[in-house]
């Protein structure tokens, strides 16, 4: 009896605009609806085509019959390196999927390695937050696990928060989720009214001048970046809190109400205040708890920042056994960076 022929190997090619419907179908089949519940062309274009740091490079795996069986994209990012005073171009591996019939054939690995090779001359750093299932594969491809980025929590409704945590730990079924009621203005509306030169641009200039003395890597923040990241994000429902003194903008925070199992969480993505202004940071942190309409607030308050300095008196404590796992490498190998090399916000790392 003759042996069965080996399955035909897929071919690899760059992602084209015409591939978008098939890419969305494959991502949905593999990763469900994503952070908005539905993978749409508008969300894909916002994330991968309108990013102010540049369009995302992407590769596809295609079966001999033309069926799309694998996809891999790298999101472009920029970090400011206070130690050297320059901008570091980076990429973040995101949105990867392999068709169920083609798993176990090295497609994920090949797409990732090929895209690393393609971007190695334009990106100095590769970083992402893999989950427990994907982390071993990244390690085999040269990624270094740097540790867990801690999360600070502020319970707003203590009884509801405790019940929700217990139900989540016990994996008990819960009833239909109540609708979220957040009184805060939407980021879409706020950033539509605050663009170009103005109070936000002035706040960012003051912030950038002070942050230049910090040797850690921090995201390059401009009004254009913030509007794209939070104001233009389709379906993510970011909200804005502001703080003023004497009629002048002294602080801005951005977050979004979301369901976290049985709990309503306000994910605090970003806190920006004038240098040294812990009072404005504390006011923003308290307002997030008071006005979000959620059971708790969660965010990363990077050590040494005004928000971290105000966290305790605003009721925020580090949550045990939580946090996103950070992994990184250079395009050609391992990195010497550590978790302490970055000054993150949760908006830099949350999956979107």
Protein described:
With 352 residues, this protein is an alpha+beta fold. The protein has 2 domains: 11-148, Aminopeptidase (3-Layer(aba) Sandwich); 152-322, Gcn5-related N-acetyltransferase (GNAT) (Aminopeptidase, 3-Layer(aba) Sandwich), CATH 3.40.630. It contains 11 helices and 14 strands. The protein has helices at residues 20-31, 41-48, 107-119, 135-140, 158-170, 187-193, 199-211, 223-231, 278-291, 306-310, 346-349, and strands spanning 11-14, 58-62, 68-81, 86-98, 125-128, 144-149, 152-155, 217-219, 239-245, 248-260, 263-273, 296-299, 317-318, 324-329. Strands 1, 2, 3, 4, 5, 6, 8 and 14 form an 8-stranded mixed sheet that branches. Strand 3 (68-81) and strand 4 form a beta hairpin. Helix 6 runs antiparallel to helix 8. The longest helix has 14 residues, at 278-291. It starts with 10 loop residues before the first strand and ends with a helix.
Give the topology.
Layout: E1 11-14, H1 20-31, H2 41-48, E2 58-62, E3 68-81, E4 86-98, H3 107-119, E5 125-128, H4 135-140, E6 144-149, E7 152-155, H5 158-170, H6 187-193, H7 199-211, E8 217-219, H8 223-231, E9 239-245, E10 248-260, E11 263-273, H9 278-291, E12 296-299, H10 306-310, E13 317-318, E14 324-329, H11 346-349
Parallel strand pairs: 4-5, 11-12
Antiparallel strand pairs: 1-2, 2-3, 3-4, 3-8, 5-14, 6-14, 7-12, 7-13, 9-10, 10-11
Helix pairs in contact: 6-8
